[in-house]
Specification:
The protein is mostly beta strands. The protein folds into 7 domains: 1-30; 36-152, Immunoglobulins (Immunoglobulin-like, Sandwich); 159-241, Immunoglobulin-like (Sandwich), CATH 2.60.40; 252-336, Immunoglobulins (Immunoglobulin-like), CATH 2.60.40; 346-432, Immunoglobulin-like (Sandwich), CATH 2.60.40; 442-525, Immunoglobulin-like (Sandwich); 537-625, Immunoglobulin-like (Sandwich), CATH 2.60.40. Helices cover 5% and strands 47% of the residues. Strand 10 and strand 11 form a beta hairpin. The protein is elongated and about 110 Å long. The N and C termini lie far apart (91 Å).
C-alpha cells in the first residue's frame, strides 16, 4: 500500500514537471501577457494611452495621426515598437526612434486596403482598431479597442492652387493633390467678378495641373478646383484669379554647386518684396521632366538638395509665388555631382572670447581629404551667410575679430577638398558679442619728483574707446581706496602731491565708458613700487605634448615674498589678466585652464608680492599650443 502511494505521488510530480517544461518550450523567451494590469517594463507598469482617434472620432482617407503617450516602466529597457491592428488584422509597425523618443503613428487607409483586402470603393463607414506596444524585453501592453471610429470617405480638399500667366489669354493652373482616393478633379471658372462659377474640365485622378485658354484679355477670370469620388466631393480649393500680377519678381542668379556625390547647394537672388515663398524644381535625369522637390518660405535664398546620385547631371529652377499666382521660372542651373562624398566639419561651436574681444569658432575635422576650412558668418536670425575666412589644412580654430558689441552672429564652416569641391556645411552655432568696458590700462608706474611731496604717475592706455580714466588712492596700508581724480580720454599721466611724507600712499587706475568700468591696473605706492622685492627671472615653459596645458618655470630671486602672481594674455590681446597666485618659493606652475585652445599662442609674465608691495615683472614668455 505504501509503495503504491509513493509511486502515485512520483507520477504526479512527473506530470507537473512535463507541463512546466512544455510551457517553457512553447513560449520560448517571449513573454505574452494579455492582462495589462500585470505588465511591467521594469519595476512599474508600461504606460500607454491613446487620446485620438477614439470612439466617436472621424478619420480621413489617407493618413490620420494617432495622438498617444507611451513610456516603459521604471528601470525597463525602453520601448521597441508599436503594432497597429485594424478590424482585427495587423496593418502597420512603427519603431521607436534611435534617440528613444516615440515615433509618429498613422492610421493609413492605404495599408488597411492592402492588408485587410478592402477595395477603396467599398471602404467602410467606420473601423475598429487597437495598438500594442512592446519593450525591448518583449513585454507588451495593448490599448483599449476603439470600435466606433468613423471614416470620412470623401476625398481631401486640394490645396495651394496657383495661377501662372503664360500669355494674356492663357494661364497655367496648379494645385497640391492631397487625396489618396479621388476619382477625378473638377476645375471651375468664373468669367468676371459678378459672374457665376461653372465647371470647365473634369480631370483624371492624381492630376495637379491644367492650362486654360480664354477668349478675352480684358476679363478677370477666377478659378477653383475640387476632388470627387463615389462617396461625394471635397471642399473647393482656394480661389485664384488672372487679375493679379505675377507672384513676385522672378528669382535670378540661380547657382547650383555640387557638394560631393550626393548633395547640392542652390543659391539665388530674391527680387520680390511680396512673395510667400519659392517653389524649387529639379529635372529628373532619366525622364527629363521637371519635378517639384521643395517649397521654401519667404526671403529664402538657399536650399540644400540631398540623396542625389554620383556622377549625374541635374538641372534646377526656382520661382516665387503669392496667394494666387507664381512668377516665371528662373534660368536653369545645370551641374554634375562628383564621384565621392567627403565629410564636412562637425561639432562647430562659437563662443565670445573676452581676452581677444573676438568670437572663437572651433570645430572637428572628420576627414583627411581637406586642404582648408572656409568660415561663413551671418548677422542675426535672417539674411545671408557671407564668407569671412579661410584656414590652413588641419586647423580647427578661427578668431573673428570683426565684430560689434550688442550683436548676435551665426557661424558655419565647410572644407575645401583635394578632390576640387567644397564639402557640406557644419552645423550652425551663434555667439553674442556683449557690450564690454574699455580695455584696462596697464603698467602703472610711480616716480618721486620731490621727496615726500610730489610723485608722478603714468600708465599705458590700451583702449581706443574709453570716455576717460579714474585714479584711486589709498592712504596708508590699512586705509580704503577712494576716487581721487577723473580724467578725459587718452590721458596717460598725473602728478600728485601727498599730504604727509610719513605715510605711504597707494594708487591704481581704471578706464570707463558709458557706465562700464575696466579692471584696475597694478598697484603702486609712494613707499616704493617694489618694497625691496626682487622680480622673478628666466620665465620659461612649453605646452605639454598632446594636450592644451602649459607648464611654466621661473627663478625665485626674493626671500621675503608671500607668493607669486601669474598673468596671461592671448596673443591677439594687449591686456594681461591675473590667472593664478602661487605659494612663496614656488618655481613652477601648470596652466590647465579650459580657456586654452590648441593652435593658439599665449604670453605670460610673473611677479612677486608681499603684504604691501609687488615686485617688477619678470620677462614675458610666449608659448604656442600645437594642434
Amino acid at each position: 500500500m505504501k509503495n503504491r502511494i509513493i509511486t502515485k505521488y512520483l507520477s504526479l510530480i512527473a506530470v507537473l514537471t512535463l507541463i512546466v517544461i512544455s510551457v517553457i518550450y512553447f513560449t520560448g523567451c517571449v513573454e505574452s501577457i494579455t492582462d495589462p494590469t500585470s505588465i511591467t517594463g521594469g519595476t512599474t507598469e508600461i504606460g500607454f494611452n491613446i487620446t485620438y482617434p477614439v470612439d466617436g472620432d472621424t478619420i480621413r482617407m489617407g493618413q490620420t495621426p494617432v495622438y498617444f503617450t507611451a513610456s516603459d516602466g521604471l528601470n525597463g529597457p525602453g520601448l521597441s515598437y508599436y503594432e497597429l491592428f485594424v478590424n482585427g488584422v495587423s496593418t502597420d509597425l512603427f519603431f521607436q526612434k534611435q534617440d528613444g523618443s516615440n515615433p509618429l503613428i498613422f492610421i493609413n487607409t492605404d495599408s488597411i486596403e492592402s492588408r485587410v483586402g478592402i477595395n477603396p470603393k467599398d471602404f467602410p463607414e467606420k473601423i475598429q482598431y487597437f495598438i500594442t506596444t512592446y519593450n525591448k524585453n518583449h513585454l507588451s501592453k495593448t490599448s483599449a479597442t476603439f470600435t466606433n471610429v468613423f471614416v470620412n470617405r470623401k476625398p481631401e480638399t486640394p490645396a495651394n492652387m496657383l495661377l501662372t500667366r503664360i500669355t494674356d489669354k492663357s494661364f497655367n493652373l496648379i494645385w497640391d493633390d492631397l487625396s489618396s482616393n479621388e476619382d477625378n478633379y473638377e476645375l471651375w471658372r468664373k468669367d468676371g467678378v459678378n459672374a457665376g462659377y461653372f465647371k470647365i474640365y473634369t480631370l483624371p485622378a492624381n492630376n495637379f495641373g491644367k492650362v486654360d485658354y480664354v477668349q478675352s484679355d480684358i476679363i478677370n477670370y477666377f478659378y477653383k478646383v475640387r476632388a470627387t469620388n463615389i462617396f461625394g466631393v471635397s471642399e473647393f480649393s482656394n480661389e485664384v484669379s488672372s487679375s493679379g500680377v505675377a507672384g513676385g519678381s522672378t528669382p535670378t542668379n540661380l547657382i547650383a554647386e555640387a557638394l560631393g556625390a550626393s548633395k547640392m547647394q542652390l543659391t539665388w537672388t530674391d527680387n520680390s518684396n511680396d512673395e510667400l515663398g519659392f517653389r524649387i524644381q529639379r529635372r529628373n535625369p532619366f525622364s527629363g521632366i521637371f519635378e517639384q522637390i521643395a517649397i521654401v518660405v519667404t526671403n529664402t535664398t538657399e536650399y540644400f538638395d540631398f540623396g542625389l546620385s554620383a556622377a549625374t547631371t541635374y538641372a534646377y529652377r526656382v520661382a516665387s509665388f503669392t496667394n494666387s499666382s507664381q512668377s516665371s521660372w528662373s534660368t536653369e542651373a545645370w551641374v554634375t555631382t562628383y564621384g565621392t562624398d567627403i565629410n564636412g566639419p562637425s561639432k562647430l561651436v562659437a563662443t565670445f572670447n573676452k581676452e581677444s574681444n573676438s568670437v572663437l569658432v572651433q570645430w572637428s575635422d572628420d576627414t583627411q581629404k581637406e586642404n582648408g576650412t572656409l568660415i561663413e558668418r551671418r548677422l542675426g536670425l535672417t539674411g545671408q551667410f557671407t564668407e569671412i575666412g579661410l584656414t590652413k589644412t588641419d586647423t580647427y580654430v578661427f578668431y573673428d575679430s570683426e565684430v560689434e558689441a550688442g550683436n548676435t552672429y551665426y557661424y558655419r564652416a565647410r572644407h575645401t577638398t583635394v578632390e576640387g569641391f567644397r564639402t557640406p556645411f557644419s552645423n550652425t552655432d551663434s555667439a553674442y558679442v556683449p557690450v564690454l568696458p574699455p580695455n584696462a590700462p596697464s603698467n602703472l608706474t610711480i616716480n618721486e619728483f620731490t621727496a615726500g611731496v610730489l610723485y608722478g604717475l603714468s600708465w599705458k592706455d590700451n583702449s581706443e574707446d574709453e570716455d576717460g580714466f579714474e585714479i584711486w588712492r589709498k592712504d596708508g596700508i590699512a586705509g580704503a581706496y577712494y576716487l581721487l581724480r577723473v580724467f578725459d580720454p587718452n590721458i596717460k599721466a598725473y602728478n600728485d602731491s601727498i599730504p604727509s611724507a610719513s605715510l605711504a600712499y597707494f594708487y591704481r587706475v581704471r578706464a570707463f565708458r558709458d557706465g562700464l568700468y575696466s579692471n584696475f591696473t597694478n598697484e603702486v605706492s609712494t613707499g616704493g613700487s617694489t618694497g625691496g622685492l626682487s622680480a622673478p627671472s628666466n620665465l620659461r615653459g612649453d605646452a605639454v605634448i598632446g594636450t592644451n596645458k602649459i607648464q611654466l618655470q621661473w627663478d625665485d630671486n626674493s626671500t621675503t615674498e608671500l607668493g607669486f602672481a601669474i598673468e596671461r594674455r592671448h596673443i591677439e590681446s594687449t591686456v594681461f589678466a591675473e590667472v593664478k597666485r602661487v605659494a612663496p618659493n614656488a618655481t613652477q606652475w601648470l596652466d590647465e585652464s579650459q580657456a586654452l585652445v590648441k593652435g593658439t599662442s599665449y604670453v605670460y609674465r610673473i611677479r612677486a608680492y608681499d603684504q604691501q608691495f609687488e615686485s617688477d615683472y619678470s620677462n614675458e614668455h610666449q608659448v604656442f599650443i600645437p594642434n
